[in-house]
Write a structure and sequence with these properties.
The protein starts with a helix and ends with a helix. The chain is α/β, with parallel strands linked by helices. Helix 14 crosses helix 15. It has 2 domains: about 280 residues, Rossmann fold (3-Layer(aba) Sandwich), CATH 3.40.50; about 220 residues, Dynamin, middle domain (Four Helix Bundle (Hemerythrin (Met), subunit A)). Strands 4-3-5-2-6-1-7-8-9 form a 9-stranded mixed beta sheet, sandwiched between helices. It is built from 21 helices and 9 strands. Keywords: Cytoplasm, Cytoskeleton, GTP-binding, Hydrolase, Microtubule, Motor protein, Nucleotide-binding. It is found in: Cytoplasm, Cytoskeleton. Its main location: cytoplasm. Belongs to the TRAFAC class dynamin-like GTPase superfamily. Dynamin/Fzo/YdjA family.
């Protein structure tokens, strides 16, 4: 094998092995175009007991596959062969990545055990492949897929659909345009009845991808041969038929070495009167070289499309990585920096909601401009300042000694009672703004793209914001109630000093009665007197109401700012996703570089 061929096929094997490790092979992650499906491989197809396992073992030069009667291969076996320059042969399974098998009897047992893990001890099948890599100085770089043998009848212990299930599974592998079909047929059966040839012809009618292999030539009836098939007269393919002589059952029972078996195969063809003239193009060693050469041809033809797929996958992965975000640093300083950056991103979105760049802040203005004034207008001052209630409060305030000029204590009690009504709207405004702020925090967290990869951080921000807003709400309520209490604790004296002057001025207006004559109008026992008291209190309360309407929003806004403490803990599933993306990205970039390094060689 030329160095170029080894480079190309070895490259494909390495990419396939990496795809296997990442789980990105047929039926794998649909988020990306599967590189596995784009890479050429050899699918081994045949009926049960057609000699498939023996052909594979002859190519590998090792006895490692399960044997028995009926259906033995119950899961696809993806067999990747790697030629090494020197050293001991060994095998590795993708499900046991850190374990090397040098005893191939243990390889056989692991295949059986791994099959049973999915299918049990039954005769059922599974489409989930087993991936096996063999490293040896005696193999060629090659990927072979051993598929369950085709059958015509379900036996006891199998489902009624198993015939169709096996055929569907086989088709899923050989329908791929990059798949090379190795159709195994026994020479001691009529080629017209070959299950392998029939299904290969269905998916590859021109025969461009099909290689015919004739097994059990040594078991044909005496006086007969398979020259019509091998020389392409019975059924012609684009590629030459290859005859194989497997180990006999007696040789298998005696554990005859595969090196000896290969020598005996060469001797059979070299000394056969029927096949001697074809000896150089027969046997398992020739078949392995033929398949490697065909793989090289296919790989060369597919390099442009493979490169295009790799570049497309790289673009998709880099876009995905940008969406997922770059990995979080492990040192504390870098993590703190990341936290601060995320906090700034959240703070920016939150401020945009408050300041008008995003919707939401207008709802707070609505509380101040509509909800609070409406609540103040609905306060029951008419009932509190009714004539009957004013008389009652003023009389109670006077006690046993009625007031002389103005009922100061009565005024104070009426005003204090009126101002107490402001508590409800003031506290309701705080609650309304608190509700809006909580909703804006929730929206801001959801709209901060950088936070989406950190669910724990999102939860901590939400919790910290909730705690802070709750604390600030209580502070706001205390502040606005304090504003109301301040108005109650000290009345604006100038307002009331003007009242006697207004009365006197009313009496001295041109055309009006003299001041003395006006005295009866302010008789402390008359209804007019109490109505005037109610009117004065109402005027004062109106003035305070306007002050409250202006100052409460200031107090609420001042008190309900939030400072949040944060933690950083990324979603494990997202971390795993990013790691997978990073590995795939590394794989594809490495594959692109390797393809570039060998594709120019001819």
């Amino acid at each position: 094998m030329t160095a170029t061929m080894e480079s190309l096929i070895g490259l494909v094997n390495r990419i396939q092995r990496a795809c296997t490790a990442l789980g990105d092979y047929g039926g794998g992650d649909t988020a990306f175009s599967s590189l596995w499906d784009a890479l050429p491989s050899v699918a081994v197809v045949g009926g049960q007991s057609s000699g498939k396992s023996s052909v594979l073992e002859s190519i590998v030069g090792r006895d490692f596959l399960p044997r028995g009667s009926g259906i033995v291969t119950r899961r696809p076996l993806v067999l990747q062969l790697y030629r090494i320059d020197e050293g001991q042969e060994y095998a590795e399974f993708s499900h046991l990545p850190r374990r090397k098998f040098s005893d191939f009897a243990m390889v056989r047992k692991e295949i059986e055990d791994e099959t049973d893990r999915l299918t049990g001890k039954s005769k059922q099948i599974s489409p989930v492949p087993i991936h096996l890599s063999i490293y040896s100085p005696y193999v060629v770089n090659l990927t072979l897929i051993d598929l369950p043998g085709l059958t015509k009848v379900a036996v006891e212990g199998q489902s009624e659909n198993i015939v169709q299930d096996i055929e569907n599974m086989v088709r899923s592998y050989i329908e791929k345009p990059n798949s090379i079909i190795l159709a195994i047929s026994p020479a001691n059966q009529d080629i017209a009845t070959s299950d392998a040839i029939k299904i290969a012809r269905d998916v590859d009618p021109t025969g461009d991808r099909t290689f015919g292999v004739l097994t059990k030539l040594d078991l044909m009836d005496k006086g007969t041969n398979a020259l019509d098939v091998l020389e392409g007269r019975s059924y012609r393919l684009q590629h030459p038929w290859v005859g194989i002589v497997n180990r006999s059952q007696a040789d298998i029972n005696k554990n005859v070495d595969m090196v000896i078996a290969r020598r005996k195969e060469r001797e059979y063809f070299a000394t056969s009167p029927d096949y001697g003239h074809l000896a150089s193009k027969m046997g398992s060693e020739y078949l392995a070289k033929l398949l490697s050469k065909q793989l090289e041809t296919v790989i060369r033809a597919r390099i442009p499309s493979i490169t295009s797929l790799i570049n497309k996958s790289i673009d998709e992965l880099e876009s995905e990585m940008d969406h997922l975000g770059r990995p979080v640093a492990v040192d504390a300083g870098a993590q703190l920096y990341t936290i601060l950056e995320l906090c700034r991103a959240f703070d920016r979105i939150f401020k945009e909601h408050l300041d008008g760049g995003r919707p939401g802040g207008d709802r707070i203005y609505g509380v101040f401009d509509n909800q609070l004034p409406a609540a103040l207008r609905k306060l029951p001052f008419d009932r509190h300042l009714s004539l009957q209630n004013v008389k009652k409060i003023v009389s109670e305030a006077d006690g046993y000694q009625p007031h002389l000029i103005a009922p100061e204590q009565g005024y104070r009690r009426l005003i204090e009672g009126s101002l107490n009504y402001f508590r409800g709207p003031a506290e309701a405004s705080v609650d309304a703004v608190h509700f809006v702020l909580k909703e804006l925090v929730r929206k801001s967290i959801g709209e901060t793209q950088e936070l989406r990869r950190f669910p724990t951080l999102q939860a901590e921000i939400a919790a910290a914001a909730g705690e802070a807003l709750e604390r600030f709400r209580e502070e706001s309520k205390k502040t606005v109630v304090r504003l109301v209490d301040m108005e109650s604790s000290y009345l604006t004296v100038d307002f009331f000093r003007k009242l006697p002057q207004e009365i006197e001025n009313a009496g001295n207006r041109p055309g009006g009665p003299p001041a003395a004559a006006a005295a009866p109008a302010i008789d402390r026992y008359s209804e007019g007197h109490f109505r005037r008291i109610a009117s004065n209190v109402s005027s004062y309360v109106g003035m305070v109401s306007e002050t409250i309407r202006i100052t409460i929003p200031k107090a609420v806004v001042y008190c309900q700012g939030a400072q949040l403490g944060l933690l950083l803990d990324e979603d494990p599933a997202l971390m795993e996703r990013r790691q997978q993306c990073a590995k795939r990205l590394e794989l594809y970039k490495s594959a692109r570089d390797e393809i570039d390094s060998v594709s120019w060689i001819r």
